[in-house]
Amino acid sequence: MKKIDLKELNLNEKEEKILQSSIKLFSEKGFSAATSKEIAKDAGVSEGIIFKYFKTKKDILKAILLHLINILSEKIVLKGIKDIFKNDKECDIKTVLKKVIYDRIKMVDKIYPMAQIIFMEAILHEEIRDAVYNNIIKKAMEIFNDFYFQMAEKNILRKNVDIMVVFRSILSNIAIFIAQKKIFGKYFKFENIDKEIDKVIDVILNGITVQ
Amino acid sequence: MKKIDLKELNLNEKEEKILQSSIKLFSEKGFSAATSKEIAKDAGVSEGIIFKYFKTKKDILKAILLHLINILSEKIVLKGIKDIFKNDKECDIKTVLKKVIYDRIKMVDKIYPMAQIIFMEAILHEEIRDAVYNNIIKKAMEIFNDFYFQMAEKNILRKNVDIMVVFRSILSNIAIFIAQKKIFGKYFKFENIDKEIDKVIDVILNGITVQ
Amino acid sequence: MKKIDLKELNLNEKEEKILQSSIKLFSEKGFSAATSKEIAKDAGVSEGIIFKYFKTKKDILKAILLHLINILSEKIVLKGIKDIFKNDKECDIKTVLKKVIYDRIKMVDKIYPMAQIIFMEAILHEEIRDAVYNNIIKKAMEIFNDFYFQMAEKNILRKNVDIMVVFRSILSNIAIFIAQKKIFGKYFKFENIDKEIDKVIDVILNGITVQ
Amino acid sequence: MKKIDLKELNLNEKEEKILQSSIKLFSEKGFSAATSKEIAKDAGVSEGIIFKYFKTKKDILKAILLHLINILSEKIVLKGIKDIFKNDKECDIKTVLKKVIYDRIKMVDKIYPMAQIIFMEAILHEEIRDAVYNNIIKKAMEIFNDFYFQMAEKNILRKNVDIMVVFRSILSNIAIFIAQKKIFGKYFKFENIDKEIDKVIDVILNGITVQ
DNA sequence: TATGAATGAGAATTCATTCAT
DNA sequence: GATGAATGAATTCTCATTCAT
Question: Which of A40, D20, D30, D86 is placed for a possible disulfide with A47 were both Cys, Cβ 3.0 to 4.6 Å?
């Protein structure tokens, strides 16, 4: 289990260990099924100390979710895309998309267990959904919007489409690609991710009909 | 909360009530967080009787998941697509896709809470993933494969793409459409689903680049 | 340990056992020091069932305190005095006082451990004090007031005293008598309570100076 | 919260702070409910240092109780009465009693929270009762006995009473007066304590019957 | 000596499961 | 079969006490 980089949060050693173990166990078993005893054991600390750093078990989840959504969304989730869209306005669309997808896959790999927890809790709890929407989805949509508009102005991308639909389509293609790797990885072994991504981009850009 | 039609399972009244309530509560709070007391109360039965029908709480989940995956995959999930693909081989691709998407949305609406439980538990537990893969994904892929092959032969759909990628793309577009409605419905109000689906299909079929 | 009669409360068997054991243990060790495990053991029930009848441990205390203060104050604490004062207006003051003191001692004997808990919690918590004052002290004062006024009118008891002071004096003499028996019983063995009470009444009625 | 003068104990600064805070918190919440963390915080010291000075939390209680009972009983509690009884053998009984009551009220005001702790713990624990009895009650009784005997010899106070009963009566009248002020102070506002005490003495000395 | 982080035993509370009725 | 009271193991959380610094 790769450890998520939590250095940005300025936590002390134990606090970080607890969070790391919580992320691992919440993502493996779900929040309710992971016990404070297991977390303590995995983190190599006593059970008591957990409740010094986090008043309740729920607070560990909150730290993972809201804290990280708010603090890290900008740094980790959005920064990558912004940079690519900014630096590559002149590049061809295929290259840009490839960079984005690569970057997203790398990013999700980095934060995967955490992302999974957020994802699952977002399904169950509206407050989390709100945080995800406002901090990630909404912002990502705005960035994408600007980018698409410029590409459309240059006559590279179609003007007669609903940008929202396009955004969703690209996002979902990335998501399912990751899900396939992460969740159903055992059934689908890709040998060459580079080629796989090219194929996805081809379908996104050119559709599936014979022109 | 719409009730899922479980008549096909030949359950007796109490057993069905218990399953209905479990589906409702598992989908609302997650499996671990829903208690047998709550289920009993919601189902209007005694706690004791739950364990007559289902040896353990886990068995309720299994009943919901495995039982329903196996039984319903054929009857509800796959039947629809098969019929469409069978009956519409002559129709134009746009119409077929529209029918499929419509059918899937309708179907998911029908089984939504159950699908959500399956989905979440599949993320956590390999045995569920296996059941989902073998009973649903694999079968759906086979059907789609046949269909795509025929469309490609007729020179309607591109031959130079990876069918797996296309399958995933369509699936993910449907999934994100449903997720947006079900999970993030509060942020995105579509007025006209018919038009929305047309837009999605346009992007899938034609891509986003100016040809 | 004599058991307090809780039949008036219409509790079921286990609930009553739990309350009895709680009263016993709270009075022996104080509320905080008595554990639910001990209570369960003493009551001969499982720890779990305690929390079916009383949501929290604090609720057991509340049941003992407020419930009993409110419900039983009238029946147990005040009824006795009322009856004596009502029925004995013609008797001589010595006899009345003796009856009252006897009755109070008997009554406190009956509810002693409970009374002790109320007493100790009243020292610590204002809400309890309020309940004690409003349900017991205030009412007792009113009853005593009426009685004293009539005795004073008949020229049996002095008019030139503060009734509040007299009330307090009698009350405190009873209280210290009981405390001596209950708390410091080991140091003071009275052989003949009847005679003891006569002595107390003598002092209350006639004072200690040579007239 | 008035601070009790502990200078007589030759404690160092920290030790005294810890005791002061313990007295405050034990009297406010009871011994078991007050935590060492709270005490440390209130005393402005670290939790660790508490256990340097007092091996266990119980030892703080012992220090407060036994230590203070033993040391203070002689210096503060009994000295006052002794002095009064010694110096005022010639004075009239009313003046003496008034001095005693005044002195006791002043004294209890000074040590109130500590006295409350002693009182409550004495109810619960025999060892505390022993200490209270042997160090305070017994000694006070002896002093009172001497005093009463002399007053009786001078034909000022009645010979035909049980001195124990008289002692108890006076003690209880003082106690209830203080309790009323301290515990039920919110319900009974005396404007003039001097007059109040006169009334109490009147009742003690002359009784309540019309002679 | 002094700190306060860390411990772990034990407290309150929950809950799947059993069982007498 | 059906009930729901009862169980007790497991869970979350607390706190006196210890210990590295």
Answer: A40
Angle at which helix B79-87 crosses helix B93-124, to 10 degrees, equals 160
Burial A193-202 (b: 16+ CB within 10 A, else e): eeebbbbbbb
Element (H, E) at B58: helix B57-62
- Where residue C83 sits, what CATH number does that domain have? 1.10.357.10
Hey, of A166, A177, A208, which one would you mutate to test binding to chain B, going by the most B CBs within 10 A of its CB? A208
Chain C nearest CA to D146, separation (Å) = 16
- Number of C-beta neighbours around residue B126 at 10 A: 10
Q: pTM of this prediction? A: 0.88
Nearest amino-acid residue to E4, taking CA and C1': D46
A 119-148 residues inside an 8 A Cβ radius of B: 120, 122-124, 126, 129, 133, 137
The angle at the Cα of C78, spanning C73 to C80, to the nearest 5 degrees, equals 130
User: CB neighbours (10 Å) of residue C55?
Assistant: 11
Residues 149-188 of B with CB under 8 A from A: 155-158, 161-162, 164-166, 168-169, 171-173, 175-177, 180, 183-184, 186-188
DSSP-derived secondary structure letter, A28: H
Nearest to D133 among C162, C187, C204 (CB): C187
What is the pLDDT tens value at each position of chain A, 211 positions in all? Answer: 456 566 666 778 889 999 999 999 999 999 999 999 999 999 999 999 999 999 999 999 998 887 777 766 776 667 777 787 777 666 788 888 888 888 888 888 888 898 899 999 999 998 888 888 888 888 889 988 988 998 899 899 999 999 999 999 999 999 999 888 888 888 887 778 889 999 999 999 999 998 7
- Under DSSP, the state recorded for B142 is H
Query: Would you say residue B134 lies in a domain?
Result: yes
Lowest mean pLDDT among B139-153, C33-47, C152-166, D70-84: D70-84
Question: Which 3 state secondary structure label does DSSP give C190?
Answer: coil
pLDDT of residue D94: 87
φ/ψ of A120, rounded to 5, equals -70, -40
The answer to whether the C-beta of A35 is closer than 7 A to strand E is no
Contacts of C136 in chain D (CB under 8 A): none
User: What's the CA gap between D142 and D160, in Å, rounded?
Assistant: 19
How many domains in chain A?
1
- DSSP per-residue codes, B109-173: HHHHHHHHHHHHHHHH-HHHHHHHIIIIIHHHHHHHHHHHHHHHHTTSB-SSS-HHHHHHHHHHH
User: Using the beta-carbon criterion (under 8 Å), do B133 and A176 form an inter-chain contact?
Assistant: no
**pLDDT surpasses 70 at B163:** yes
CB of D50 under 7 A from strand F?
yes
Name chain C contacts of D33, Cβ cutoff 8 Å: 31-32
- Count CB neighbours of B106 within 10 A: 10
- Domain span holding position A78: 7-206
Whether residue C46 is predicted with pLDDT greater than 70 in this model: the reply is yes
Q: How many CA atoms lie within 13 A of A184 on its CB side?
A: 20
- Taking the alpha carbons at both ends of chain A, their separation in whole angstroms is 45
Is C157 contained in some domain?
A: yes
Tell me how far CA of residue C201 lies from CA of C15, C86, C210, D166, in angstroms: 41, 20, 16, 11
Number of Cβ within a 10 Å radius of residue B52: 12
Pick among B149, B159, B209 to test the A interface (most A CBs inside 10 A): B209
Burial of residue C41, with CB atoms counted within 10 A of its CB: 0-12 exposed, 13-18 middle, 19 or more buried: middle
Q: Is residue C1 part of a domain?
A: no
Report the SS3 class of residue C35.
coil
Nearest to A101 by CA among A195, A170, A8: A170
Lookup: tokens for C38: 């001990």
Quick check: is A134 in a domain? Answer: yes
C vs D: CB pairs below 8 A: 147
